[in-house]
Specification:
The chain is mostly helical and 93 residues long. The chain has one domain. Helices cover 73% and strands 0% of the residues. It is built from 4 helices and no strands. It has helices at residues 2-6, 11-40, 57-83, 86-91. The chain is rod-shaped and about 55 Å long. 5% of the residues are buried.
Length: 93
C-alpha cells in the first residue's frame, strides 16, 4: 500500500481498495453464517430461551453485528495505514 501511495494514489483510493478487499469475504461469511443459522435453528430450538425458531431476526442480527464489527475494525486499520507517510510504510516492510 505504501508503494501505491508513493506512486500517486490518493488516500481515498487506497482506502476504497483495502475496504473492498476486506468487505467481500466478510459479506460472504455473513451471508453463509446467516444461511447456516436459519437452516439449523430448528435443531437448536431446545437450547434457545425466549426465541422462536420461526423468528429469524435474532440470529440474523447477531451474524450481521459480527460482520459490522469486522468491517469497523478493518476501517480503523485502513485509516491508520493511509495516514502514515508512504516512505515510512515502505521503510517498515
Amino acid at each position: 500500500m505504501g508503494l501505491r501511495l508513493a506512486l500517486g494514489s490518493t488516500p481515498r483510493q487506497a482506502q476504497a481498495l483495502l475496504l473492498r478487499a476486506v468487505a467481500w469475504p466478510v459479506i460472504i461469511a455473513v451471508a453463509a453464517g446467516a444461511a447456516i443459522v436459519l437452516a439449523g435453528i430448528s435443531h437448536i430450538q431446545p437450547l434457545l430461551s425466549g426465541i422462536s425458531y420461526t423468528d429469524p431476526l435474532a440470529p440474523t442480527a447477531a451474524v450481521s453485528i459480527i460482520g459490522a464489527l469486522t468491517i469497523a475494525a478493518s476501517w480503523r486499520s485502513v485509516r491508520m495505514l493511509v495516514r502514515q507517510e508512504p516512505i515510512e510504510t515502505l521503510r517498515t516492510m
